[in-house]
């Protein structure tokens, strides 16, 4: 059972003016939440998705709100969405029965602006497990601004799957396609899936007035294949990744196709910062984590990725330069000071970690 989170006094969408984005998603306001049941069947899903597109203060997460918090009135603090302090997080892991497949910037057989349905169907059909399956499609905030397909496909699963299994499938799907088609980072309990239509101001015109599309095909659940063994990455040397939830889950994507190096580490830093009460405490903990295992683990990851690249194994990338302890601590500090765990907290200045990619 997934959930809908609602910002208290903010927007869960972008504000767009004639010259581009005026403001991005609100990542500071507190939230309320409610668990939902995504309807089954194409007609019902198209109707449900159209309703969500119109709700500009709400977004979807794959996890469920824990008991006692899911009344759409109780305030949920962002820093408590996921926590490792011995107390239950407000968003719990959940097996998915329906999934969104996020494709952002993939080229279809035709220009999306000319024939959005045909373009979206052609990108869906790049993956055999999705090909020919009828589904609802919601355009992203950038949809319709260029020729590329940018949006989220909604599918029902034949069998419920864990978040970890879905991330593994997403990485494997990109490997099989030979390029990034889907975003595997979407499959984490607290990961936002923004569905709402952008707010267009000062005369800006929506290039995709019909945000929800009905894609043709067979109306049935999908069956996702077992991921290829090559993506079950195990460092050749150094300590294994410690078990746990929260910020560690972002490290699974480091070096893999579509995720690269910089973005997963930035997300990990943001999630790490949320688990501590102050920037000072976060910095002390960040230093301890680096010295205790993270520095060695990342070095091991880099060595393994380099060996894979030299051996011609597809799907792996190398950092453009060596990383160091100082930049990790600075990323955590910056996120903690802004009291938010989004990658957008530090995009104002390019980090030199991994060459600032």
Folded structure, characterized:
The chain has 357 residues and is an alpha+beta fold. The chain has two domains: 3-215, no CATH class; 233-356, no CATH class. The chain is built from six helices and twelve strands. The strands form four sheets. It has a four-stranded antiparallel beta sheet, with helices on both faces. Strands 4-1-5 form a three-stranded antiparallel beta sheet, with no helix packed on it. Strands 3-2-11 form a three-stranded mixed beta sheet, with no helix packed on it. Helix 4 packs across helix 6. The chain starts with a strand and ends in a 20-residue tail after the last helix.
Provide keyphrases for this structure.
12 strands; globular; 2 domains; 6 helices; 26% helix; 357 residues; alpha+beta
Q: Short description, anyone?
A:
This protein is α+β, with helices and mostly antiparallel strands. Helices cover 26% and strands 17% of the residues. The chain has a four-stranded antiparallel beta sheet, sandwiched between helices.
Q: What is the element string, with H for helices and E for strands?
A: EEEEHEEEEHEEHEEHHH
Overall morphology: globular
Task: Please state the average pLDDT score.
Answer: 82
Helix content: 25-40%
Secondary-structure blueprint of this entry?
Blueprint: E1 3-7, E2 15-17, E3 20-23, E4 31-35, H1 42-53, E5 58-61, E6 64-65, E7 91-92, E8 96-106, H2 116-124, E9 135-139, E10 149-161, H3 163-177, E11 199-200, E12 212-215, H4 262-274, H5 279-310, H6 325-337
Parallel strand pairs: 2-11
Antiparallel strand pairs: 1-4, 1-5, 2-3, 6-7, 8-10, 9-10, 9-12
Helix pairs in contact: 4-6, 5-6
């Amino acid at each position: 059972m997934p959930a809908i989170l609602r910002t208290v006094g903010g927007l869960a969408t972008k504000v767009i003016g004639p010259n581009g984005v005026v403001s991005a998603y609100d990542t500071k306001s507190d939230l309320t939440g409610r668990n939902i049941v995504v309807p089954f069947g194409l007609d019902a899903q198209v109707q449900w998705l159209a309703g969500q597109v119109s709700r500009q203060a709400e977004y979807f997460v794959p996890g469920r709100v824990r008991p006692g918090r899911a009344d759409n009135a109780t305030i949920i603090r962002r820093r408590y969405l996921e926590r490792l302090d011995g107390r239950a997080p407000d968003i719990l892991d959940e097996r998915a029965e329906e999934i969104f497949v996020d494709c952002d910037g993939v080229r279809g057989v035709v220009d999306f602006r000319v024939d959005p349905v045909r373009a979206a169907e052609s990108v869906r059909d790049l993956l055999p497990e999705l090909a020919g399956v009828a589904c609802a499609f919601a355009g992203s905030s950038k949809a319709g601004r260029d020729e590329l397909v940018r949006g989220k496909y909604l599918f029902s699963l034949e069998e419920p799957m864990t978040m970890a299994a879905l991330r593994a499938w997403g990485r494997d799907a990109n490997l099989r396609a030979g390029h990034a088609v889907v975003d595997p980072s979407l499959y984490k309990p607290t990961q936002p899936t923004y569905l709402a239509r952008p707010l267009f101001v000062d005369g800006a015109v929506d290039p995709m007035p019909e945000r929800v599309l009905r894609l043709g095909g067979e109306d049935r659940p999908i069956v996702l294949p077992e991921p290829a063994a090559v993506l079950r990455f195990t460092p050749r040397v150094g300590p294994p990744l410690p078990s746990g939830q929260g910020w560690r889950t972002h490290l699974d994507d480091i070096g893999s196709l579509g995720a690269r190096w910089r973005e997963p580490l930035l997300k990990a830093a943001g999630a790490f910062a949320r688990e501590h009460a102050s920037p000072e405490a976060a910095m002390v903990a960040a230093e301890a984590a680096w010295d205790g295992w993270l520095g060695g683990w990342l070095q091991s990851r880099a060595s393994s990725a380099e060996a894979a690249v030299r051996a011609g194994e597809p799907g792996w990338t190398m950092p453009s330069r060596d990383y160091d302890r100082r930049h990790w601590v600075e990323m955590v500090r910056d996120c903690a000071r802004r009291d938010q765990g989004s990658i957008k907290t530090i995009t104002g200045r390019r980090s030199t970690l991994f060459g600032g990619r």
